């Protein structure tokens, strides 16, 4: 995997949760609830399991995005891809994992849109030079 792809995974993985975190803070919901809910995909609702699940899903979708053309507007293309990813991810996760279904929908969609935009922009950046 290229350095550019690793960077995209890291940046998008860390920053894409900002929309739901801000929503949680404003609405006084537990900020780590989405992480715990993601943990149920690996058995128990823990932050550690949630981080592992999130990292795996982020890596998978970043690798998919790396194969798609981004054109001259990667943020727009990535945001649209993020919306499509939200439709897939959330429809599956909400059906199989009640803790994810219990989360507010729109902040989760916003996280996916942010993920797509961030990952696509990072993937479009020139490869780092030098060692």
In short:
The chain is built from seven helices and no strands. It has helices at residues 3-15, 18-27, 33-39, 47-66, 74-96, 98-101, 105-124.
Give an account of the 3D structure.
- The chain has about 130 residues and is an all-alpha fold.
- It has one domain.
- The chain contains seven helices and no strands.
- It has helices at about 5-15, 20-25, 35-40, 45-65, 75-95, 100, 105-125.
- The chain is globular and about 40 Å long.
Topology, please?
Elements lengths: L2 H13 L2 H10 L5 H7 L7 H20 L7 H23 L1 H4 L3 H20 L7
Helix pairs in contact: 1-4, 1-7, 2-7, 3-4, 4-7, 5-7
Helix amount, in percent? over 70%
Shape: globular
Bin the strand percentage.
Answer: under 5%
Q: What class would the helix/strand composition place it in?
A: mainly alpha
Number of strands: 0
- Count structural domains: 1
Low-confidence stretches: none
Secondary-structure element order, N to C? HHHHHHH
What is the averaged pLDDT score? 93
| Biggest beta-sheet profile | none
Overall radius of gyration: 15 Å
Distance between the termini: 16 Å
Tally of helical runs: 7
